[in-house]
Structures are given as structure tokens and as C-alpha cells.
Write a structure and sequence with these properties.
Layout lengths: L1 E6 L5 E7 L3 E6 L4 E6 L4 E4 L4 E4 L3 H10 L6
Antiparallel strand pairs: 1-2, 2-3, 3-4, 4-5, 5-6
Length: 73
């Protein structure tokens, strides 16, 4: 399991991405799952299972959650 911390311009943690052999999972600041990228289908799905888009868009899920004001600052 590979873990990547995602920070904003000021160095504050806004989320993380955990990767394994089959998928990448995006988490927000609080550790809640935002969505997953399935490598077998090359599609990204949000928390509800709806398709977000083709390719790995987990970073976009994290930045979108941050832009919507879901972090404490």
C-alpha cells in the first residue's frame, strides 16, 4: 500500500491518496473516502459510485472537496 499526502499551496494537508495494485482511493482531510480510481476499467468513481470521468482523477476529487470548504480553515 502506497500513501501520498496532498497539500495546498501553504503546505497544509488537504487529503491523501492510497494506492494498491487494483485501485487508488482518495481521502479528504478528515479521512473520509471521496472516491476511487479502478485501474481495470480506467474510470474514477465518487463516494456514491457514480462515474466522475475516465482516467485517474482522484487528485481532482480532493481539490474539489477542499474548494467546497470541507476543511477546518
Amino acid at each position: 500500500m502506497d500513501r501520498q499526502t496532498v497539500t495546498d499551496f501553504y503546505g497544509r494537508i488537504i487529503g491523501r491518496i492510497e494506492s494498491d495494485n487494483t485501485c487508488n482511493t482518495a481521502y479528504d482531510f478528515y479521512g473520509r473516502i471521496l472516491g476511487k480510481y479502478q485501474k481495470s476499467t480506467d474510470m474514477t468513481y465518487d463516494f456514491y459510485g457514480k462515474i466522475v470521468g475516465k482516467g485517474d482523477q482522484t487528485m481532482g476529487l480532493i481539490t474539489k472537496a477542499n474548494a467546497e470548504g470541507k476543511n477546518p480553515w
